[in-house]
Design brief:
By secondary structure, this protein is mainly α. 65% of the residues lie in helices and 2% in strands. It has a two-stranded antiparallel ribbon. Helix 2 runs antiparallel to helix 5 and helix 3 packs parallel to helix 5. The chain is elongated and about 85 Å long. It starts with a helix and ends in a 30-residue tail after the last helix.
């Protein structure tokens, strides 16, 4: 075997993970599904003017699916567990960066964004594992939480002595509200 043939053979071996069209189709479907589902949640967040929007959610979902797909190729018994643990920890750091706490007495911002990023990673894991129905149902449930429940929970914070809702932050003279917002 010549040097050129050795080099080509070595490069060809780098593509062994998707060595047939069936594996390639499955991997592409799972990655595209993760991207679409992450994009749906990201679009919802971006349409509300949140910092973590379409691209962030798509990248989180696709990245989570890639980690899972790669660990499936290795097929060691503990690999999947370690990969999911790593995704969870890594997304925790990303989510922590989305949470902003101002000075004492100010509202906390970014909790829902952080939870949405975490949920998007879980959806990416489900898509990467080939659990398409679970990934789709989870996305729909997350949309219900983000779209529908945000309108329905206003009554929880309503001031019982007022017909207009909760008092504005600092209206009672005690300082700003510490109720988390996002």
């Amino acid at each position: 075997m010549t040097l050129g043939e050795q080099i080509l053979h070595s490069i060809a071996n780098e593509f062994r993970d998707l060595d047939d069209s069936g594996k390639m189709a499955v991997a592409c479907f799972r990655l595209v599904l993760a991207g679409i589902l992450g994009g749906i949640l990201g679009y919802e967040r971006e349409s509300k003017g949140k910092a973590a929007g379409l691209r962030t959610h798509m990248l989180v979902a696709i990245g989570s699916a890639v980690f899972v797909l790669v660990s499936q190729i290795d097929q060691s018994p503990d690999a999947m567990s370690r990969v999911i643990q790593g995704i969870t920890a890594g997304i925790g750091f990303l989510g922590a960066g989305a949470i902003v706490k101002g000075r004492p007495g100010e509202e906390i911002h970014g909790l829902t964004t952080a939870a949405g990023i975490w949920m998007t990673a879980a959806i990416g894991v489900a898509a990467g594992l080939g659990k398409a129905a679970t990934a789709i149902v989870s996305t729909l449930l997350a949309l219900v939480v983000l779209r529908v429940l945000c309108h329905g929970v206003g009554w929880l914070h309503k001031d019982p002595n007022s017909s207009t809702g909760p008092p504005p932050p600092g209206a009672d003279g005690a300082g700003a509200s510490t109720r988390p917002t996002d």
